[in-house]
Every structure is written in structure tokens, then in C-alpha cells.
Please model this.
Amino acid sequence: MTLHRTAAGARLQGDRSTAVFRVLLDTLARPGMVQALPPGLFPPGVAPALALPLALADLGTSFCIASDDEAEAAAQRDLVALATDARHTIPYDADIVVLGRPDPEAVGGLRSGSDELPEAAAKLAVQVEDLGSGATVVLDGPGVAAPFAVTVGAPAEFMLALCDRNERPPAGIDTWIVDRRGRVLGLPRTTRITVLDGTGTEVS
Amino acid sequence: MTLVQPRPSAVERLAGGEPRRALLDELSKREIRRAVLTAVAVPGYQVPFASREMPVARGWGSGGLQITLAVIGSDDVLKVIDQGEDAGVNAANLRRLVADASGVATTTVAGEATVIQSRHRIPEEPMRADQLLVLQVPVPEPLRGVERDMTELRRMHAETDYARMWVSLYEDLVRNGVITQTPGYPCLVGGRYVMATTPIPRWDIPKLHRSEHLSLFGAGREKRIYAVPPHTDVEPLTFDDVPFEVEQPDGACCHRCGSGSPASAVSSFLVELPSTGGAGRWVCSDTDWCARRTEQTSRYGTAAAGGPVREHEEVGR
Amino acid sequence: MGYVAARGGTEAIAAAEELVRRHRLHAAAPWLELEQLTERLRYLTDRVMGEGGLWAPELAARAIRQAEGDVIEAAHLLRAHRSTLPRLCRLRAVDADGLDPLRRIVPAFREVPGPQLLGRTLDYTGRLLDLADEDRARDDAAGAAGARVEPTEFETTLAGEATDRAAEERSARFPQRLLDVLRDHDLVVERRRPDDPEPVDISSFAVRPGIGRSGVLSVMARAETGALVNLWYRNILGPDNHLHEVTLGEVRHGELPVLVTHPHTGGDVRLGVVRATEVEAIEDLNGAEEDRTRFDVGYGLVAGHNERKAIAMANLDIAVHRHGADGALEQSVLMTTDGLDASGFLEHLKLPHYVTFRSMIERKQAMRTDRARQQRTGRHNRGANENGAQR
Model:
């Protein structure tokens, strides 16, 4: 029953659903600009990164939640399935993917679409602790007025793995990095990312 | 009628108890939202979407309407224009539909709006980062003039094979002395995709280039959504020695606000009020912009230079 | 700028709506009951449901009444209504062998497995305008209203011949289809595929060439009847010419069950029935690359009773299959037969276009200015100036 109650609280409808979508839209249109999810959006214990499937998935969509903590992932799967009627599947088949932590290995197994089918790419949400920490990257491309540096809450290895997948747009993976406080940073596949090391030198 | 009137509990569970008569259910909105996000991530690419039927006919803004309904929240303020005008019947109709379905506030003042839905124009007042432009698109495919086969068109976009587009522009130039492509002028977006500009006049195209605002394009009948994010290159296709020309009638100025006259520091897209026999008169197509300039002129003797009046007091109509 | 007169476009729209409303309420004739449409204008409601993509006879009748009889407008009302409804679940695919026939004819053979059942059809009623006295006709209808309708001889044949054993009854109720007979004789090319993919749902997926057969069939099932008939005729007589010699196998009209999977028990639950028209069309293959020792069979299935549309659909199914490689016919079927798309775009020409038209006039003037300049300078065209590099 607790699961059902949590799922009911996590079900996004009407204005709440729109508000989350607008955060996803604004952050994707302006890569690297951090925005916060509406406060008090979900019941306690619901990871903020689940906002992506909870706002976008439905009966016709598949999703995947991957986490080291299998018990937590299973609970999150049940929650999203109950709240959205979407179907859980393996990472490669999923339209919407949530990673419980910035796992570089996991990025390799997602669908990235193709030149002919850019829309077949997965949408990815990554749960991180704090956007204020992690690797520093320089962003450029559509939506960026002038290249700028920002911390992304994820380690350099993860960012390099993402760069790998987004090397040849229009194929690629559209990513939102979400921290525990519900702050969101968007990285569309067309963003050019340069990963810096501690000294501000480019990592390749 | 089991199929159309399911058990109330199930409806309650999935659709939520919407107090207003929604034009789109939550699931249809999600499908549009997913397509919008893909469009933003791949600027200029035409993302297919299901395109549900709207209370307006195909070709009457059903694509723009679906996007607006999918993005708009109760905090938003909506402006709808057609040909630059808020008071046209089609603009009035779409505004009424969205307002009734979503309960948002509406305005005619561009600066007050957070979402602007438009057919054929971009407002003269520069749009800000906190504003969103939704354009209604009748024909989203810029290459249809050179190729009809949809499978081949997909290949051309996928491979960035725009050679035939360039050839057709060149032939046009050779045959006619100018590039005769009228509204909907093709542009290269983000250096990657050739995109149809809806049709807005060529006058408005520079407003898309490295803009502050996000532009979303909806073609309901052809079931495509595409986007130009902020700060993204939108370059009209032309040749190095052939400058891209916008519509600027020689010596014409708005007979109401004076826009375009030698004394005016600003100009705007003008449409002609034809008269039989003698020369026609000209007037701004952006009626709200023009009305506020006219008001300013009559009150202070001069219109503000460089942009429209920012004050939001009642404008006499 | 005539439209500027619509300062206060809202008032103009409200006034137009008021005119519609007033004439609806204060028409000289009595209020039109939904039953009159569903019972007396059966083909009309069926057509609106088919093109509207929603099985809902009473809603279709409402739509027809609201649209004042405009079929496309009524179909639009149904589809726009559908857009507001939540998607609750997916229905189970049902086997068309389960169609309970109200009518079934097999033109290709004289004696076929199961009955030839003419049923309710206008095919053989003389096209003579009924000029019976209006008052008498009304009295007759009123007199017959309460009376029990006895099954006709032809309706009883079905049940009467097979009262002995349930199996016989079933075979008469659900006769073997002609296609199976042809398959037994190895006379048809095999078009069944070993896998059983989910059919494409065209209301949640943008169709485009390459969508697959289920998508093409779904588009045709929702297409405007006239558009489909015209496209068929273009292929018979007109420039397209993708059909050769078609014979109809099955033409059926009957009821199909609507099934969902019960969320807890996993069993089938029957929600009700929809009426549908089903057609199998046999094409004599004559292409150089085709198997000339066999036939191909096309399939049509549309909501309600609309044989014209189902036949055109079955024929075009084969035509798309036979000429899929060049893509043009498939694109025509997919992109040009939807009534709402075509009519909406046509009617949008009534919207103001003065901004785009102004832009077009400006180019005409620019061309003239350029010509005048060329004549002055003696330069004939830009072709001589070929260093125009791409930007």
C-alpha cells in the first residue's frame, strides 16, 4: 500500500506535470543553465531524477531504471510503472532511462538513434549528489551564447563516456543531470562538451 | 457505449479530474512534449509526432495549438497573432480556445506574454529569454520544391545532401536575376539542417538567428515539430555575392506610427492598403506594436527610438 | 486589409456562432433525434465513424447533427473528441474469422463453403426515386413501428440449416473464407509473415512511407471514402495503372467482438461489438517478376457498413504491395487520402494571407527592378558571374 500511496503522490498531472516539463525544456534549450524542479514535487524518498519518466512516460513508452542498489531500482521501477503505465525494459530498448549514479559503463548501452532516426534516441536522467561538485566542463553549441565552464556533479569519466555517444549528432543521447536537491542541468546531444581536469586542462 | 465512456474510477485514475474541458488528454501532451524535447536537442530537424485532431481544422494552426497546449501552464500569459495582428478572427479563435482549455491569462502586449503563438509573423519587439515563440507551420519540408518522395527527402536530410537545393537557388538566380523564394525562405540551422521558416517573411528571419528566445514550430497536418533554440545560427541560404534581402518597400512608411520614415529610427514589416488608381498606403503588420508607438507619438510627440513603448497602460482601440 | 475590419475578431466569431446556434434552435423543422440518424441514416453514421476513427454511433449522430450533415466536419468532431479521451489500455487483436456476418457474398465462386448471404443491401433495389405520398409513408412507418419484425427467409437460412450440431452451426455462422480455399489449392502467393508484430497505431505515430502494411491498412481504414475510391479509379483507368484484373473473394458485413485483457485474471473480457465491413480482393498477377501461376489477395476492413471503401482498400492493399518499390503509390495512400488533412488544408486558404502575399509581390517587383537594371547595364544574366560560392 505504501508503494501505491507513493505512486499516487508521484503521479504528475495538469500543472505539476507542465511545470516539470518546462524545467526539462528550459534546461535542454539552455545547456548548462541550472534550474530547480518545483519544491515539494514528490513524496519523500522519490529520487528527483525520476522526474524525467514521471513527467514524460506513458502507456506507449518504455523506460529503464539502472542502479547499483538493486532493491532501490526495483522499488523505483514499480513506482514509475504504477504512476505512468509505462513498460519497464532493458536499457537498449528504453525510450527513457534513469541512472541511479553517473555510471560511465551504462551510457554505452543506451539507444542513440541514427542520422535517419534521431528521434529514436533515449532520453537520460542521471542522479548525482550535487551539481556544484564533480567534473568541470566547457559547453558550446546551440543554446549556448558563449562557451562557459560549469560543474556537472558527475565525474570526468562519465562525461567522457557521454561525449563518446554524442560525437556524431543527430545521433546521441539527450541528458539531464539531476542532483539530490532537485536542481537540473540539461545537455542535449548537440552540445559540445570539453572536459577539464583539476588544472583546467582538457581531458580527452 | 463502453468504449467512449469508461468506468469513472479509471478515468479519474489516468486522466485526473480536469475541471476544464481539456482539448488534449495528459498522454497526448506527453507525446508532444517528448517530440518538442527531441526537436530542441536537434535544432532544425523535423521530429514526427502523432498530431491529434484539434478543435480547429488541419491547416488552421492545429500544430501550433498542440504545442501551445502541451507547454502552457497556468502561470503563463498568452499572446496569439495572425499576420501580426491580435484581433484577426483566427488569432482570436485560437486565443479563446487555449484560454478556455487552460485558464491562462492572455494579452496583446508582446512584452507581457510568456508564450506567443503566431502565424506568419514574429513580433517586432525583440523577444526575451523568458519568452517562448510557437509558430504555426503549414508546410514543414523545405526541400519539397526539389523532391517529392518522402523517403528520398529523409535521406537528403540524414546525409546533409542539400546540393539540389543549392542548384535550384542558383537556377532561380540565373533565370530571374534575384532569388525569388518568397516567404518560408530556407535557412540552415545550427550549420546542419535546412529548415522551412513557416512562412514568415524574410524580414523576420534575422529575429531567429542567435535569438534570446526559444522558437518551436508545429505542423499539425504534416505531423512534424521542429525547433530553434536560443543562441543558434539561422542562416538564410544564399550566395556570397548575393546578399539576403528582406522586404523593404522604397520610401514606404507606416501611415499610423511613421515606422520606416526617414524621421523614424525604427522600421517594421509593412503591408500595403491598396487603393484603386493612386498609390496605396502602408501600415505595420504588427498592430499592437504600431498602436503603442502611435499612442506614444500622440502623447509625447515622438515615438521611442529603437523599439516599441514598454509601458503597459491601456491602449485605446 | 479586410480582416482588419475584424478588430474585435472575438466579437465577429461570437456573432457567427450565434447565427449557427440560432438556426439550430429555431429551425423550421422539429429537433433531430439521434435515433433518426443512427436508424434511418445508417450509412452516414457508419461513414462518419469510419473516417472519424471512433466507434460510437450516438456520438457520430451528435456530430452529424452538429455539423449540419457535413461528413468531414462530423468526422473531425469525433476525432477531436478522441484527442481529449485518456488512453486506458490496448485492446486485444481479434481474429476477423470471428466476424459474425450480417451479409456475405463471394463473387468469385458460385458455390462456396458457407452461405452466400445477401443481407441488407441497396445493391439490387431499383434506383427509382420513391415518390410515395409523404403522409401515407409516415403513417406506414408509424404503423410498423411497434410490430415485431419476423426474420426473412434468407435470414433464417443461416440458423435453420444447422440446428443439428454445434460445429455445423459454427461453420455456417463463421464460414471458411475463400482465401483458405485458394490456399488449399496452392493458388495464392504467401504474404503471411512468420512473426506477429503489433499493428501500428496511427493515432499515436506519424505515418510515413515504410510504415509497414498494418500502417497502410490503418490509414486506408480511416481515409475519406471518396478519396480512396478516386485513388482506386486512378489505378484502374487513370495515370497510375497499378491494378490489373481484380476479382472479389469475400465481401462481408458483420459484428466483431471487442476484447480486452483483464488486468487481474489475464483472461479476455468482451466489452461489446463493433460492426465492420471486410473484403478480400484477388488480383491476377501479371508483372514480369511476379508468380503468374498464383494470385495475390488484398485485404480491406473498415468500421461500419461501407463496402465501397473496403473494396477500394483491399484493391489498393495489393497495389501498394506490388508497386511498393517506387514508393509513389504508398506515399499517395498514406499522405493524401485523409479527409481531414485534405479538407483542412484546402479550407485554410480562406485564412488571411496578406503578409505572405506582400512578400510575394515584393519579389515580383524585385525581379522587375533587376531586369530594368540589366537592360541599362547591358548585362543579361548572372550566369556570366559564376563565382558565387556557397556561404
Notes: Residues 26-41 of chain B form the longest helix (16 residues). Chain B touches chain C through 93 residues (CB under 8 Å). The longest strand of chain B covers residues 77-82. Chain B has two domains: 20-140+188-236, 247-307.
